[in-house]
C-alpha cells in the first residue's frame, strides 16, 4: 500500500524536526522509528514503508494540547496503557490531518516533557 505523498512529506518534516532537537537520537526498537532524548522516547514515528498507516505518537501533558490532539481525524490515546500517561497517536494519512507545523509543536511539547532542564534551556536559547 503506497503512502500518500503529502502524508510522507509531513512525516519527514516531523522526523527531521524531532531529530534536530538538542540531544535527540533516532533508534529502531521493534523495527519502528523513535526519537529519544536521554535514552527516553519523546516521539514514536512508526514506519514509513507503508506496512502500517503513517502517524506519530507524542506525550502531551498540557491539557489543552492533549485535548486538541485528540480532535485530529482518527487520533486516539496511545495503546499499551500509554494513553493514561498522556500519549496520543495522531494518524497522518486521514483527510484533515494536522499540518506539519502543529505536529512539530506537539513534538516539541513532548520533548520538553522528557528532556532534562539543561537540554530544554539549550532549545530555548536557539
Structure notes:
The protein has one domain: Aspartate Aminotransferase, domain 1 (Alpha-Beta Complex), CATH 3.90.1150. Strand 1 (25-27) and strand 2 form a beta hairpin. The chain starts with a helix and ends with a helix. The longest helix has 15 residues, at 5-19. It is globular. By secondary structure, the protein is an alpha+beta fold. Helix 1 (5-19) packs parallel to helix 3 (100-114). It has helices at 5-19, 63-70, 100-114, 117-124, and strands at 25-27, 33-37, 40-46, 55-59, 76-77, 87-91. The protein has a 6-stranded antiparallel beta sheet with strand order 1-2-3-4-6-5, with helices on one face.
Please summarize what this structure is.
This is DGTPase. The protein is α+β, with helices and mostly antiparallel strands and 126 residues long.
